[in-house]
UniProtKB/TrEMBL annotation:
Homodimer. It holds the Pfam family Metallophos. Transmembrane segments: none annotated. Its EC number is 3.1.3.2. This is Purple acid phosphatase. Binds 2 iron ions per subunit. It catalyses: a phosphate monoester + H2O = an alcohol + phosphate. Its cofactor is Zn(2+); Fe cation.
């Protein structure tokens, strides 16, 4: 195992029941020193169900693929601990849904970014920037806490309780976040700019598009030539994209799936829609981003090679 690897199962975005936010986007830098000058990682979302609903099968395959790719870290795109998030540092759900599930050696990486309630392997953040420095360029991840954008959580929360103490007043919070994101994207010298959120911008899944994000976030991503937008929320695996445009990737198949409620989408754009469980892997070099979707048996469902300069799909 590479010791240069910087952090491990990095879980981005708390469950929607635990809220909070940084007032400024913080940039955390990590040099990558793999001999082939690449960055590899997995993305899983919507997973914490004590191993149930195929969570354990997905975790097992993540371990195998993680080893093959010698991954640098794992991104979770949210909804980490069902149903209500973690209740404090000693909540047994942490073991039952995380440390006893993602057990493969390839997933055990030391977490060296700033501490949190479970500093050993789990880092939970809301909005933040992670910067990975290859010798040939940089890969930058802009994590955006998309929960405050969703109007319904404020006007019609149903049985869910949210702590918005770090979000209110909401309008100001959102405008600050968008302003900071825009600024940081403009400042960025990274070759690759990936934005990660929980909710979908383009998705044919059960929840459908998050109109608030289409209206407010998407224009900033387009203006700043973001390469990929990665999300969870819809419990499926999905790739929506066209040549020359941002690719929209959903990896929300970490446990419960098979909802059977797909919405129509232009088949020219919808490269993959898989309603079951699974996860994604990424392998990034200076010129190409390869991403692969796997089912619970590790079968490849779909793969794509996105070429940086031409912004087109290449042969794998
Ligand atoms: C687990 O995965 C298999 C294969 O995709 C599927 O047939 C089965 O329905 C899944 N189980 C659950 C509980 O989702």
């Amino acid at each position: 195992m590479k010791t240069s690897v910087l952090f491990g199962l990095t879980l981005m975005f708390l469950c929607i029941f635990i809220n909070g936010s940084l007032s400024k986007l913080e940039r955390l830098e990590h040099p990558v020193t793999k001999s082939d000058d690449s960055l590899s990682f997995l993305v899983v979302g919507d997973w914490g169900r004590k191993g149930g609903f195929n969570q354990s099968l997905v975790a097992h395959q993540m371990g195998i693929v993680g080893e093959q790719l010698d991954i640098d870290f794992v991104i979770s795109v949210g909804d980490n601990f069902y149903d209500d998030g973690l209740k404090g540092d000693n909540d047994p759900s942490f073991e039952e849904s995380f440390s006893h599930i993602y057990t493969h050696p390839s997933l055990q990486k030391q977490c060296t970014i700033k501490s949190c309630s479970h500093p050993k392997r789990l880092e939970m953040v809301l909005s933040q920037i992670f910067n990975f420095v290859l010798s040939s360029g940089m890969v930058e991840f802009f994590l955006v806490d998309t929960n405050p954008f969703v109007e319904k959580y404020f006007t019609d929360p149903g049985d869910d309780t949210y702590d918005w103490s770090n979000v209110l007043p909401r309008k100001k919070h959102i405008s600050n976040l968008l302003h900071d994101l825009d600024l940081e994207l403009k400042k960025s010298r990274a070759t690759w700019k990936f934005v990660v959120g929980h909710h979908g911008i383009k998705t044919a899944g059960q929840h459908g598009v998050t109109q608030e994000l289409v209206d407010q976030l998407l224009p900033i991503l387009e203006e700043n030539k973001v390469d990929l937008y990665i999300n969870g929320h819809d419990h499926c695996l999905q790739h929506i994209g066209s040549d020359g445009e941002i690719q929209f990737l959903t990896s929300g198949g970490g446990s419960k799936a098979w909802r059977g409620e797909t919405q129509p989408w232009d088949p020219k754009e919808l490269k993959l829609y898989y309603d079951g469980q699974g996860f994604m892997s990424f392998h990034i070099t200076h010129s190409q981003a390869k991403f692969v979707y796997y089912d619970v048996f590790g079968n490849v469902l779909h793969q794509s090679k996105w070429c940086k300069d031409s912004k087109t799909f290449g042969l794998f």
